[in-house]
Automatic annotation (TrEMBL):
This is Xylanase inhibitor C-terminal domain-containing protein. Residues 11-72 form the Xylanase inhibitor C-terminal domain. Signal peptide: none annotated. Transmembrane segments: none annotated. It comes from the Eukaryota. It holds the Pfam family TAXi_C.
Amino acid sequence: MLWNPKHPYFYCIGLVGISIGERTIPVPDMLPRVNRRGDDGVVVDNGTTFTMLLTSLYNAVVSEFDGQVGQLSTDEKK
């Protein structure tokens, strides 16, 4: 857990990657840490029903997920 002066009422973590199956999607350099101004890192809020990601990270996660799910569907048809 990281202390974030901008969001002291939330839990903040450093995110180093998102795993989908055996593959880990790397994250931008700003997400593993929080600087002294409270920039960067990831806010964790268990009262929120959705997750927000940077567009580039979201697209990488969607692409990997689609690839793995599509591969499972193809394997099942064989």
